[in-house]
């Protein structure tokens, strides 16, 4: 397809958009902080993104009771591979290319959490047993060495109306709390969160 308006360079891309939002720069982390840990613990669903040896990419759903993805440390998380169809698309990809990304969602919550890193598939009996559910241990566990953590704002989910009238669960970390953690407590989380509904409504489009 020959598109005369195709954007083919970073310079051309950046010229179409404005300045990077300063707060979005603050939200990038290299570890799992307290709000990130809490978000993962409350999430029953994530999307695992992988890339295979032939360059093909896959985005596969992963879900279970909230907290099914375990935080092993500030720089490592564990994702059990529950029973499926045995195509193993994502796992085959990881054997070829360990770079992975997870997008965590919580019903009723507009924000999402993105975690990227390098995955290792393990059949460690002790870890598989630790992550057993309903008496069944996963065949393998994906251990992810965390390289980047990013808290995504609520605009996409607000525009989509994905959760409808589902209420936000109590205790889920807010955008302000993530920013407060990122700035070692210097950020005014309470004011930011109080102003968020009006700010997001004014900037959805």
Automatic annotation (TrEMBL):
Residue intervals of the Pyridoxamine 5'-phosphate oxidase N-terminal domain: 37-153
- Supply the InterPro entries for this chain: Pyridox_Oxase_FMN-dep (IPR024029), Pyridox_Oxase_N (IPR011576)
Query: What domain of life is recorded for the organism?
Result: Bacteria
Q: Which PANTHER family match?
A: FAD-BINDING, PUTATIVE (AFU_ORTHOLOGUE AFUA_6G07600)-RELATED
Protein name, entry field: Pyridoxamine 5'-phosphate oxidase family protein
